[in-house]
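Hi, here's the filled form for the chain we discussed.

Project: internal
Contact: R.S.
Residues: 255
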Amino acid sequence: MRPAVDSYSVTAKYYDSAYAAKQDLLDLPFYLDLANQAGGPILESACGTGRVLLPIARKGIEIHGVDNSRPMLEILKNHLAHEAHDVRQRVTLHEGDMRDFRLGARFPLVIIPFRPMQHMHTVEDQVSALATVASHLSDGGILAFDVFYPKFDLINTRIGEEVMKFEWSSRADPTEVVRRYFRKDSVDKINQIFYFTFIYRTFRGGEVMLEDMEGFKLSYFTYPHLRALFLLAGLEPVAEYGSFAKDPLDTDRNR
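And the returned structure, exactly as it came back:
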C-alpha cells in the first residue's frame, strides 16, 4: 500500500470555505439518497475533509473513509472531534491510496464523490482505482462516482489567464475576504490531462495580505473511455446520468 502524502498541503486549509461558497455544487443530495438506500456500512474513497462523509454519518449511517492526503485527513479528524458522540462512532478513517488500499471488508455502496478519479492520470492508475473499489463491493453492491463532461471547445482557451472563481469571508477575521483564482497552465491533449493552479489571495481593505498557490493536474474522460475502464476493472454499468438530478446522458444537454 502506498504511504499517505502531503498533497493538498495548501488547498486543504481553504477547502471547506471555498466549496461552501461554490453555489453550483449540487452533488450532496444525490449521494445522501444513495446512502439512505444502501443503509450502510458505506465506503468513501478519497473522502477529503468529509464534505460528503460527515452528512452521511449524521444521517445515522456507518461510513468508512479513505484518503492519502494527510492535510485533508487532519482537517476531517478535527471536524469529527466537534461532532456528537454517536456521529463519531459511525465513522472510521483510513490512510490509503485509492489505487491499492485493502480494508478486508465489503460494502453495499462505495462512493467516489467530486471527481477524485480525475486525479488518476494513467490508464493503469484509473483501472487500479476502479478495481480497488470493486474488490470492496459486496454481492450486488454499487459503485457511484462522478466526473465532469469535457468541454472540448474550451479546453485549449484562456491558458495562462487568472480567473477569479469565488470569494468568502475569512473565518479568522471577518474584515478579510479570500478569493480563489483559477489559472490553466497547459494542456496535454495526447494523455487528456490539463495542468492548472489554484491561487488564494486574502484581502483586507482592498489590499492583498496573503497569497498562497498550489498546482494540480486533472485527467478528463470521454464516455467510451469510461466504458472501457469499467470493462477492464470487471465492473458493469447499471445507471448513467447527465446530472445529479438524474437527467439522462444527452448529446445536446451535456456540453
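Let me know if anything looks off before we file it.
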